Amino acid sequence: MLPVTVRDLADIVAETAAAGRRLEIRGGGSKAEIGALVRDAAILDLRAFAGVIDYDPAELVLTVGAGTPLAEVQALVAAERQMLAFEPFDHGPIFGRPAGAATIGGVVAAGVAGSNRLSMGAPRDHLLGFEAVSGRGEHFVAGGRVVKNVTGYDLPKLMAGSWGRLAAMTRLTLRLVPAGRTSATLILSGRSDAAAQAAMATAMRSTANVAAAAHLPAEVNAGRAVTAFRLHGFRPSVEARFAMLAGLLAAMGPVERLGEAEAGRLWRRLRDLSPLDDGQPLWRINVPPSGGCAVTSALAGQGARWLFDWAGGLVWLSFGGDAALVRRAAEAAGGHAMLVRAPAEHRALVPTLHPEAPGVAALSRRIRQAFDPAGVFETGRFPERPRAD
Amino acid sequence: MPLTMPAPDQSVLARRDRIVAALRRIVPGEGVISAPEALRPYETDALTAYRQPPLVVVLPETTEQVSAILRWCHGEGVKVVPRGAGTSLSGGALPLADAVLLGLSRLNRILEVDYDDRIAVVQPGVTNLAVSQAVAEAGFHYAPDPSSQIACSIGGNVAENAGGVHCLKYGLTSNNVLGVELVTMEGEVLRLGGRQLDPAGLNLMGLVVGSEGMLGVVTEIILRILPRPETARAALIGFPSVEGAGQCVADVIAAGIIPAGMEMMDRPAIHAAEAFVQAGYPLDVEALLIVELDGPDVECAYLIEEVARIARRNGATLLRMARDEPERLAFWAGRKAAFPAVGRITPDYLCMDGTIPRRRLPDVLRRIAALSEDYGLGVVNVFHAGDGNLHPIILYDANQGQLERAEAFGQDILRLCVEVGGVLTGEHGVGVEKRDLMPEMFSEIDLAHQQRVKCAFDPELLLNPGKVFPTLHRCAELGRMHVHGGKLPFPDLPRF
């Protein structure tokens, strides 16, 4: 179904809910293979809600239709030397498809953030307001169109990362930031995971204002372990901070500066995850930065391969073994694990999102029912528990 | 428009002795305050126009006590109003005659600091400034810095999603909190978020921040701490017109510069501040900007020159760079003392808190000046120019019976903010102060979507009732599709 007006959309949702049927909200479909296979839901395509509604670069605020392609939004703001701080990316390449399908509504609904998330926040930190149709078939607005706003409950914080389980967003107002005028990438070679973790912690404790810090172990990087640090900003500042960081890290191993093209390739591989493209299930594990190594050492020697982003706080893990082992390791490190890519039969058995503590799960359920009492968006894509059979 | 609050439940008032005794069993010793004269300090927060002594005050020292208090009150149908340091400017902690006031001031320990994970785990009664002080030796700070930071508590900051002059660069409270321990009205202890950057499922922690104490009581907070910038440099820039200052702000942003703070004062604010603290402000300008940059020395030195160039291009008639730290602090002294400075030139004042798109500033200031004439009340404007957050301060004299007029003036300013694409409150919260203006910004359907969130956390509406929502809807009624009729009225609240 492809509604073109908010009224169409509201009617479709209300009628489907009244009939006891289900809708799966979709933008470009770039993340359609995440989650359990949905059997009996109609696809609710939001791509007709596209286009720029308001963009005044001096305000650093953009209001845009949720179905607008991400690439279009990025090109629009880049032309004004601005960017989305959370560095959203297209999941297409992770699933072996070309980039270009992802929509801005999709990346915000899925909470997609790249390496910059370490220093610059997640989609929820930059979603100022939205318009949507809830599971009640009602059109509503929340938040505002200005940077600083505490009027009413902060529903944008809830909506970002809610995976289409509460409402179909039609319009988003996003905060933008100036794009760094220059950037530089420093790499440290040959570090073990634990030593890389220590180097990243040292860098993050410094005043080098590191925008992104990641580590590719030798096993996933053609035999050469690389720890990478990215700095953004005005040239004199970037140069001074680069020198300071290089001085700080020099005692830990050989330090070098990557050329622009090479740096671009390196950070792109951390988005498309090509180093982990080995046919095994792909997990995304979010832990406190110091916990990343504990997760991977628990799974080492069982065929797991991995890389670290967010200074160790994000582990991308390729692992074909028991899902329970992954979830236990993530929990032991104080975090959680999401199953991103796996064969359909695997996804039918293993919940994509990490099961929550019972009290939190019950509260989440009540929140979902508040927006969607008939469960029109409860497609079974994100079951709370593993399937019994 | 008189403010009305939920009608006191007579059966609760009649049970007061029993309630006090039950609370004493949960919190022994000095932690329960029931003598009428001892309740006085709790009858208002920083929105002092409204006062109401609470039924009783309880000051727990542990999460377990908080949980036991809430569970007992829930079982007995007794309302609870949480309170941090009582510095809310919107009446968020205003007591109710039939509600237990739950003060979190005794939960005041910093539990843990971890520099490798860059977090501080604190209890809600810790003051905002104490967090920065605790991590200062290691070269860290906690970035949000509301003006009341020596007094306001982190728990209150979480409830109100507090900001501060540096939130232009570092974000509000919600951008700097990773997790909370929350006790629900039923007494259940939940952990939302954690030490990692993102939650596993729905971001319930994000909902709790800024919910004005209505969804649960926060008993532990995991804060992000950051390395303290090497240097801060400030420039003081005077303009012959508000337009010039406004354009300078826009051009600084357009040049890709995000200052740590960018504050504007209008002529009356400059004069009041200068008379009070002798900060060395020029008295012959219409608008004054303080632009502060922080970061590495090299970056500050480079950007301050950029800012100076932009200021000259926009017709600045005064341009002073702080040569040293005392001078930088002097630049800020006047701005930070704006409220007490205004207090010297007027018997009473009301501080408003709307946000507007930056480009609308000259137009909005002109219309505020016109309203000022219409109402016959003076107004002084200080402004977080970088993020469009206005603080018009309305001058009045309560002894001359001007409070109602001042409030009506303030409400017109907030309506104007909404009309030009802005919002009712940028950082002070809705509380009781802006509660009845919510329909200016949100339809009944919008508000119903927010209030159903409240119902998911607290279906009996026992926690901090009478705040944020202009009309109380029973949760069962909200569950139905249409929300007209059957609204509960609020009775009048006496004002002082």
From TrEMBL, chain B:
GO terms for molecular function: FAD binding; oxidoreductase activity. Residues 50-228 form the FAD-binding PCMH-type domain. It comes from the Bacteria. Its cofactor is FAD. Keywords: FAD, Flavoprotein, Oxidoreductase. Pfam families: FAD-oxidase_C, FAD_binding_4. InterPro entries: FAD-bd_oxidored_4_C, FAD-bd_PCMH, FAD-bd_PCMH-like_sf, FAD-bd_PCMH_sub2, FAD-linked_Oxase-like_C, FAD-linked_OxidoTrans_Type4, Oxid_FAD_bind_N, Vanillyl_alc_oxidase_C-sub2. The keyword Nucleotide-binding does not apply. PANTHER family: GLYCOLATE OXIDASE SUBUNIT GLCD. This is FAD-binding oxidoreductase.
